[in-house]
Each structure stands twice: as C-alpha cells, then as structure tokens.
Amino acid sequence: MQQDTPLIETRQLKKLFKVGGGAMLHAVDGIDLKIYEGETIGVVGESGCGKSTLGRSILRLIEPTSGEVLYNGQNIVGLGSRQMRALRKELQIIFQDPYASIDPRKSVIEVIAEYMLIHKMHKSRTETYARAAELMDLVGLARRYANSYPHELDGGRRQRIGIARALSLNPRFIVCDEPVSALDVSIQAQILNLLMDLGEELHLTYMFVTHDLSVVKHISSRIMVMYLGRCVELADSDELFAHPLHPYTKALLAAIPEPDLAKRDVDFVTIRGEVSSPINVKPGCRFAGRCDFCTEACTQADIPLIEAEPNHLVACTLHRQAQEAGKERT
Amino acid sequence: MKDTILEIKDLSVIYKTDLETVEAVNGISLTIGKGKTYGLVGETGAGKTTTALSILRLLPAATGRVLGGSIQFDGEDVLSLSESDMCALRGRRIAMVFQDPMTSLNPVMTVGDQIAEALLVHDRKMGKEEVERRVEETLSMVGILPSRKIEYPHQFSGGMKQRVVIAMALACEPELLIADEPTTALDVTIQAQVLMMIKELRNRLGTSMLMITHDLGIVAKICDDVGVMYAGEIVESGSVEDIFSPGRHHPYTEGLFGSIPDLKSRARRLTPIAGLMPDPTALPQGCVFAPRCKKCQERCKTVRPKAVTEGTHRIACHLYGGQAAGSAQGISGGQDAFRRKEEQ
Amino acid sequence: MTEQRNATPAAEVFKKQSQAKEIWRRFKKNRGAVIGLILLSAILLIIIFADLIVPYEQATVQDMSQKLATPSPEHWFGMDSYGRDLFARVIHGGRTSLSIALLATLSSCVVGSALGAVAGYFGGWVDNLIMRSLDIFMSVPDILFTMAVVFALGANFTNLLIALTLAYFTNYVRLVRSQVLNLSEQDYVEAARAGGAGSARIIISHILPNAIGVIIVNTTLNVAKIILYESTLSFLGLGMPPPSPEWGLILSEAREFMRRAPHMMLFPAMAIVLSACSVNLIGDGLRDALDPHLKS
User: Fold this and answer.
1) B270 touches chain C (CB under 8 A)
2) What is the ipTM of this complex?
3) Is residue A242 within 8 angstroms of chain B, CB to CB?
4) Are residues A59 and A203 in the same domain?
5) Total structural domains in chain A?
6) Using CB atoms, which chains have 3+ pairs under 8 A with C?
C-alpha cells in the first residue's frame, strides 16, 4: 500500500497563536507526518495537544504559521484562494459537534447540497438535490428527513448529515475531527462502522483525530500520539497497543477504564499533574514535567523522533539511549 | 433494613408541558447499601439524571412531577418531607456532583469562600477559624494545595475544578453522594486521577454513592451494584459480577458491551445496537427495547416484560421470563426455553 | 448495511420542499402576525388610494369658520386649528409619513447590517476602520447631524430619507457586528469554508439568516421611532415643507390645543400607533416563521 508519494505530507508544520503580552501558544509545533493513500491514521491526544489544530492546518482552515503541507507532492500552503477552493473538493472534514457544525436554518437536504452548489458539480439544482438524496441513502439517512431541520434530528442522524456533506464532493482525504465523541455509545459504534464501510467502498483516506484511544484502535492502521503540539509516538495500531514505548502513551493506555472486572482492583497507573501550558514552551521533552523517567537530558534540548523499532517512531530519551547502545554493539 | 441508605421503589417521573408528556422514569426500583456504590448506566435520555434529581427533589417545578413510587433515604420518606426538612437533607446528608464543573462554581467567588459557604449553610455556628481549618482540610483531601483557596475558579483547570466541586460536595461529609457523570468532561488521564480520588475518599469516609455514567469501564472500576437503564426503566440490575460476568443478560446490556471498542480484540467492526432510543413521549407498548432488539418476539411488542430474579441478578426480558409473567421460573430456565425455540 | 441503507431506484426524483412556502405556512399560523398583515395592508391601501377617498385639496383648504370642529358626518375626524379637514390630512399625511418611515427603516437596516456584517466578519483593520468612523459619527448628536444634512441639502423627501438613514443606521452596525462576531465562531461557518464557500456566501447564506431575528426586532421597533423623529424634524421646520400634511406635523400642531380639541391629537396618534403595531406584529410573526426551531 505504501507508494512513494504520500497523499498528504506535512513538513515541520507549525501553528502558533498569539496570546496576550506577545506570548505565543504553540498549538502545533513541528509535525512531520506522511499519510498514504487508502490508510487511516489516528491522531490521539488530550485536549489542548493541538490535534484539532493539526487537522485544520492540513486543510488550511487554519493558516499554518510555518512548514509545508504537501498534497500529492504539491505544497498547498500559499496557494491562492481559487486554487484552494478547487482543492476543497479533494480534502474534506467531518466535525466533532453534530449540533454546532450544521446551520440550524437550513433543511437537511440544503445542508447536504450546499457544497455541490458552491462548486457547481451538477447542471441543475434538481440534479444536485437528487444527488443529495442519493447521499442520504449512502449514509443511511432516510429520505423522509430531507426537508426536516437539523434540530429535529438526534446526534447520530445529524452526524450522518455531516458525513454526507463531506462526501458530496467525492473527496479523497477526510479529516475526522472527533466525529463520535459527542454521541452515545451505541450510536458511536454505528457511526464508526459507517465510516469504516464508506472508507472501503469509496477508497477514502482518513485522518482520525480523537482523544479516545479505544475509538481509533478499530479504525486506524497507524496511530500518532500527540502531546503539547509534538508527536511523541507514531506506530502501527496493533504495535502501539501491544508495545507502547513512550511513557505518555503508556499512561494514556493505562488510564482507559476497561469494562473488565479482572482489572477492578488494579489501580490506574495515573500520571501526576496536568498538561502544562502550551504558551512559551521551554525546549526539551514536553512531557518531562509529568514523566517518572525524566532525566537531565530530557529538558536540555528537543527530543527528535527516532525509529526505535521498524516503523515505530518515538520521541523519548529512554529509547534513544537504548538505540545508541545497540548501535555501539554492532 | 439498617444496612440500606437509599431505597427507591416503583418510581415514576414525567415531564408534562402543554404540548406533550415525557415519560422520563417508569417504575424503577433500586437499593443502595450503606457504604456501597451503585452505578446507574445508560445513554442520553435514559432517565438517569431525572432519577438523581427526584432523590433530591430538584425536578424542574414547572414540568417535572413524580407520578408514583417511594424514595426512602435512611428510613425517611423523601417524597413526603417538608421543603425545609428537604433543605436540611440536601448538601448535608445527600450531596450531588454535576457533570460540568464549570457551571457548578461561581466565577466571582474564591474557591475557599465557596467551600466555606457550603460548610456554613449547614452549620451557622461554626467559628471563623474552624471554617478556615475545614476549608483547608477539604482542599487537601481532594489533592489541592490549601494555599490555592484564595484563587478563583478560572485559575483552575477542568480536572482541578471538578476536584473543587467534589470537595464542596464532601465538605459536610454527606451519607450519600450522587455523582452525575463526574468525569465525562475530563481528559482520560485526568479522569483516571479523579476516579482514583473518588474511590479513595469513598473508602476512607464510608460514603455511599450513586454513580451515574454511560461508561461501563467506570462502573467496572468503582461500583458494587449496577442498574442498566434504558428509556426510563432499569432493564437489568445486579452486582457488578452479575452484570460483567458472561452469561445471561438483557439484550440491551449485550448491545452496550458490543458497542464498546475492545482494546484487546482486533475485530474490525463493532456490533452496535441498531436504531435509536424510542421517543419518550410515545414509548412502545410492550418492552421498551423491542424496536431495537435482535431477539424481539411477537410477545415483546405487546406485553411489558416482568423482571425475573436470580439471587441479586434481575432481568426484565421475555427471553428469560418464562411463559407466565412473574412466574417462579428462574433466568436459567428462561434461557433454556429460548434455546429450544432457536433450535426449532 | 446499517439502518435504512437501502438503494433507491435511480428513477425516483427527489423533490425539495420550497422554503418560501414553508415560511408562509408558519407565518399564517401566527394569528397576531396575520392581523398585523391585514391591518398594514388596509392602512397602505387607504393611503395609496387616498385620492379616491378624499381629494388632496381637502387637506390644505382652510375653512376658519370650522376651526377645531369636532368629528361630524361631513368631517369624520373633525377639523384642525386652521380649519382643515383632519381626515384628509391624516390619510394624505400617511403617504409621506409611512413611506419615509418604512423606507428609512429599510435603508438604515440594509446599510447598517451590511457594514456591521463586514466589520464583524473580516475583523482586523476593516473592523477598526468601520467602528472608529462610527464612533466619530456617533459622537455628534443625531439631531444635529440630521439638521446639518437637511440644511445643507434642503428639505425634501429624498434628503429626509438620507438624513433619517444616517441617524438610524448606527445601531444596526453595532448590533449586527456583535451577532456576526458570535456567529462566525460557529462550527457551521467553518464547515462552509471547508466546502469552499467564499466570504460573501458565508455572510449572506449562513450568518445573516441566523442573525435575522435580532435584526427584525430592532427594525420593527424603529418604524414607530422614525415616524416620531420625523415629527421632531417637522417641529423644527426641517420636515416636509408645509402645508403638506404629515402625521408628526399634525401631532405637533395639535399639542397647543390638547385640552380644547383632543380629537386633533387623537387621530394622527392612532394612525401612528396602528401602523407601528401592525409592523411589530408582522415583525414578530416573521421572526418566528423564519426560525425553523419554532416549526410545529
């Protein structure tokens, strides 16, 4: 599956926000990521780690501060608004909140048809609405809701509207920004299955942004763990769950309450403290302040991502030392 | 009955407006033992929060109405208490923690003052120094430096705010703590911290708890008894072992478990429950879960299933109910009957 | 595969329900709004066909013998202090008053909303430029400003319209700007951008429709205010040149005779109240009809 040119590639992508007093908030802090056609990459992290900003920066819904975003090898940062508009057909997004991401004044069919009308995909309005109705079938939304208003539908159905809208332009790449976190468990599973089915049917490439590791496990082939704007670990999904390397990934995994009585009396291995401020960050590992294995080396310079094991990248001094030691031996 | 702190029997609650009547809770019964934690699990609109609000008699006065049933708190009938007796109960003997810590705190009062207020409401005679001492005690109990009492809520992070809210709830050492999705708004690592803290405090203070959540993982971690709620009814209840052990379960409970992504299995697809929660203004005539149930039979569509009990395990489903409603036939018998039917 | 995922034959053509029809259906359900609409239509009809009911001369011809006469079968609304037929004056006066009030409301709404939307949506220097100019503008009292405009350009219908628009557009700018600031944070605006929508489309199709409720309420309140503001101008001699009738003017003339001839005040006042009321009722109905949340 891995061709030479990734579908999407980010190179040292950075997004800094100005906050009061000349301070800078490092939302995305130098992310290098390759996403290949047909794969689903999960981006996991806690609130404030910059995962949503990363997704939006790739789509240029937020203008990156520096770095490149390559789509099919072409840098799309700096493209004019006309070229960017054409690219919107290929690059789409599904939003987290199915309540806020749909205009309450538009009927379901109008919401789904809007993108197609903007891009004049079809000759007539009738044709556009007919296509919108087909999309409703595709995402499992009964046609009788076509003239309903979003507030009359529940969260699951509204999220289906959002999916239909994203699919309306026949995109190749979709950023799913926490598409199920606002939904009930039983509805979550429905939407996740739908996204997986559509991905296979329509050969979509997904970037799945979420705070919930258990959600991405099923849908992603690879997972990137983010912490304060940095990628701390990137590996195949199975590998990441089986052998997490970074202490933060381990903590994240350990914090998931599993519906399993065998683990009832096993206390969570909680990490101390809370995510530190992303404003004016100091060099070094972003996780150092909460890490049990923190050494002096962790706070001196930024920790690069290294390939600790084949296709398993991690940014941690523990593994850098291990690797260096390994190299010396050979 | 000495060892139960709260007993709800056949509680029914409706929300009535001019336009429609929402049947929020339909005849639920549950018992919380002293020092025990009862987990009420269910999805949005199942009636979990309504149940909690009825215990505190905080249902919206304009619309909410208790239709029937009883709520006994430590032997007292909560529903027949006078409003002033109820006030004495709230906060002091029964405390509640809400989902969103941001809205439970007053943004223009320091955290210390808010805890002091909670203390003073229930004991006006407390001296100034005594209050200060208790505030500091309470804060350090939930893992916040006592020196932060002079700070305002916006200076705290989400997890810290929820700690403050819990500190306020526990300030008067209530006998029963109702926690309504206390960690839903928090990040996983912070959720883990707060859950561990709740668990530790509960064990130390011996507080009984009603834990409302949609997360079966949290239930497995800290609850002793569980009620699975769906469309205003408790469809299955029992000890955690009853619910989490493989065996006979209500199809909704099975559906809930199937919907959770399993960290260990590598199954690509999840097995969700088809369909949606029924409209609470027009509940199905028979079993409330019938329209979404894979094992739905003719009978389920018309007859409301009676619960069958086996030890502590209680299931309201026709699969296990035998022929006659309320028959003595146990759950296992019902299961056999079902198997036979399948084989035919 | 999932719920209701069944293919529909391609032949089945989808028919979209018309929005306008839906809005009209909801509007009709509101009794107050329908009454308002009938009332305003009646008032407008009377004003438009005023010449057929009573010739314009009646409104200016003076008959001093009948000065301040009370209502009678010949003169339904009685006579004013110059012995002119009040009925004729009121219905002919409505032409000027109502058309100026409605047009000035509309133009101030359009100008103010457009500026507010642009300021709020684009922010930055555009916002600063618009808002700071507005501050300067608003630091001059309305009445002074209007007077200056009318003095400079002369008192006639168009200039009065310009003056009133300038006096009333400012509050729309602030109102709409704050709405837009709030609404452009919404996810659905970002969703529209993700679909390739340009700024004009986002403002017109997503932001303004969601701000319309507030705009309409403000607008309907303004109609009555503007009618009265007009009378202030007339009182200062800056309104339509006499002897052309106008509600505000009649009202201010009536003030002197309030005790002796209350009818002189009653009828123009009623005309103002009824028009303002009907516009308010229509406004309320329209706001509700445009809001799909209240669809039942």
Assistant:
1) no
2) 0.84
3) no
4) yes
5) 2
6) A, B
**At residue B7, does pLDDT exceed 90?**
yes
The string of pLDDT tens digits covering residues C193-251 is 999 998 999 999 999 989 988 898 888 888 878 877 887 787 677 777 766 788 878 88
Question: Can the peptide bond before residue C292 be classed as cis, meaning omega within 30 degrees of 0?
Answer: no
Q: How far apart are CA A175 and CA A47, in angstroms?
A: 17
Nearest to A258 among B193, B220, B266 (CB): B220
- Closest chain A residue by Cα to residue C190: A61
Please tell me whether residues A122 and A248 are part of one structural domain. no
Instruction: Give the domain extent around A117.
Output: 101-170
The pLDDT tens digits for A262-311 are 777 777 766 777 777 788 777 888 888 888 888 888 888 888 888 888 88
A214 and A178 in one domain?
yes
| B to C CB pairs, distance under 8 Å | 4
Residues on chain A touching B266 (C-beta within 8 angstroms): 238
Note whether A229 and A288 are same-domain residues. yes
What is the β-pairing status of strands A205-210 and A24-35?
A: unpaired
Listing DSSP states for C123-174 in one string gives -HHHHHHHHHHHHHHHHS-HHHHHHHHHHHH-SSHHHHHHHHHHHHHHHHHH
For the cut 80, the answer to whether the pLDDT of residue A212 exceeds it is yes
Q: Which of residues 1-60 of C touch B (CB under 8 A)?
A: 2-3
Minimal-distance CA residue of chain A relative to B195:
A268
Do A75 and A123 share a domain, yes or no? no
Are residues A134 and A50 part of one domain?
Answer: no
Nearest to A45 by CA among A196, A162, A280, A216: A216
Q: Tell whether domain C25-51+77-294 is in CATH 3.20.10.10.
A: no
Which of C84, C3, C21, C9 is closest to C246 using CA atoms? C84
CB of B68 within 8 Å of a chain C CB? The answer is no
Chain B contact present for A187, CB below 8 A? yes
Q: List, for residues C152-194, the tens digit of each pLDDT value.
A: 888 788 888 998 898 889 989 999 999 999 998 889 999 999 9
Q: Are strands B313-316 and B307-310 parallel, antiparallel or unpaired?
A: antiparallel
Window C:188-247, CB contacts with A under 8 Å: 188, 190-198, 201, 205-206, 209-210
